[in-house]
Amino acid sequence: MGAILTTDDRRQIEDRGMNLAGVEKQLQNFQDGFPPIQLVAAATVKNGIQQLNPKKIEDLIELYRLYSEENKVVKFVPASGAASRMFKHLYEFRSIYRGTSENQLDLLRDRGPDSVYYFFDHIREFSFFPILLDACENRGLDFETVMDESRYEKILNTLLTDKGMEFGNLPKALIPFHTYGEEIRSAFAEHLTEAAHYAITENMHCYIHFTSLPQHVELMEAHFREIQKSYEEKFNIEYHISYSIQEPSTDVIAVDGDNKPFRDEAGNLVFRPGGHGALLQNLNKIDAGLLIIKNIDNVCHDRFKEDSYIYKKVLSGFLIAIQDQIFSFLRGLENSTQPSMKVIEYIWSFVDNKLGVTPPPESDSWRKEEKIDYLINKLNRPIRVCGMVENEGEPGGGPFWVKNQDGSISLQIVEASQIDRKNAEQEYILQNSTHFNPVDLVCSTRDYKGKTFDLSTFVDPQTGFITEKSIDGNVIKAQELPGLWNGSMSDWNTIFVEVPLTTFNPVKIINDLLRPEHREFQ
């Protein structure tokens, strides 16, 4: 691979904070591909997903309350995505809509809830509508006249471009999502609201970390300054907001159809973001006893938030309880010169039944010392407790039992793109899965001695995947790093807990804001 890259290429790689060996490995991945995940079975409530009764829920909430009074909790919000993806169908319509002829109006024949027609038919119901009216007026446009004349391109130019509101260039965090009387609340503000109900630590402090694109940090900081005082007074807390960007060093080189480096018109290498797996570096820098992870667009109106408040505390309490057990076992194994076989078997059963890790078949013949080493190695890892909701057709990684390279079996979150869909047995397992992960995780990244783990050592590098993209009409291959909650956490201790579907309210396209869970009134 080294011969493909020129001296100028190597300089460009260095300037991005990347190393040559890493880029050459990316190029080799394009050549070799990634092996598919080997599914053993779908994780279900009968096998792999915990269902909690009301008493257990109550106990876990109380455990979390006691923990959060003395320990730092940080809410981690992946918010690097640009809002432009929310408006993809509007951009596509705008690029071909040229007037009000019958032929042009045929572009609106799709009347489904995800359609452009549905967007315009319900445009007055969006929270941003008052802002849109003002922006039209500033452009000298009468909104009602423009709508009556079906000049939809003028509305979209006002909404999306620098001629008006410039929503297409904003981070998704700053798009107005919900209305509360006179208040119009952004996705960013909704996370402030949520955190005030479940991420409060000692002395009423609230820590939230947002990832961001470099060009959006100042915008998000300015938005927070505008609302900080009113929100802190409303909830009687003090916010501590921090930001980080997806480092260029985590980008991945792009290649053409022959797996050769793709270059721009100036002959420079082209790099693309490595997907949300790149955020592992950001997560690795957060110092907290407990981390709560939730995507920027997964928020709902206050009318529907109660379940989210409850189950964030439940997942947190579950993690604290399991962590206490793990730390107790590790201290015992460390301080005991010769634990009895009875103790070893008890911990072995815990790893198998509570952590969902079945050792490789040859473990039956291991000596006592080998079993102790195995247990210490399996216990002394980062922990994640993942909320799982019943699958009703929404996109998201699914919970599965997976066979690992060492022959062991463990619980993993797996994307459909990681599965060999041509293998009938694997496809059957996929089709019979019952739940998916809505990116609802609570994590612990410290060991039993209080030292922070290096999260990069718990990644399965073989869980990336390759996709096709287009740049200026050229088809290229892009590569995504092991996903943050997929392969990047592959070697974490993992527990799945069922949570209500009401905790999952994503806004992937702007029309999603017309769903009941995002509305002020029914």
Written overview of the protein:
The protein has 522 residues and is of the alpha/beta class. The chain folds into 2 domains: 33-82 and 271-511, no CATH class; 84-169, no CATH class. It contains 16 helices and 20 strands. The strands form 5 sheets. Strands 2, 3, 6, 7, 8, 11, 13, 16, 17 and 20 form a 10-stranded mixed beta sheet that branches.
Question: In a few lines, what is going on in this structure?
Answer:
The protein has 522 residues and is an alpha/beta fold.
Extended strand count: 20
Shape field: globular
Strand content: 15-25%
| Spatial separation of the terminal alpha carbons | 59 Å
Structural class: alpha/beta
User: Which assembly state applies to the chains in this document?
Assistant: single chain
Q: In percent, how helical is the residue content?
A: 25-40%
Sheet of most strands: 10 strands, mixed
What value does the Rg take, in angstroms? 25 Å
Q: What's the helix count?
A: 16
Unreliable runs: none
Whole-number count of domains: 2
On the 0-100 scale, what is the average pLDDT? 93
Secondary-structure blueprint of this entry?
Layout lengths: L6 H9 L4 H13 L5 E5 L6 E2 L3 H15 L4 E5 L10 H9 L5 H4 L10 H6 L7 H10 L4 H6 L3 H9 L15 E5 L2 E4 H12 L1 E2 L3 E8 L4 H19 L2 E8 L6 E2 L17 E2 L7 H5 L5 E5 L11 H30 L5 H13 L3 E2 L9 H12 L3 E8 L7 E6 L5 E6 L9 H8 L3 E2 L3 E5 L20 E7 L2 E7 L12 E6 L24
Helix pairs in contact: 3-13, 10-11, 14-15
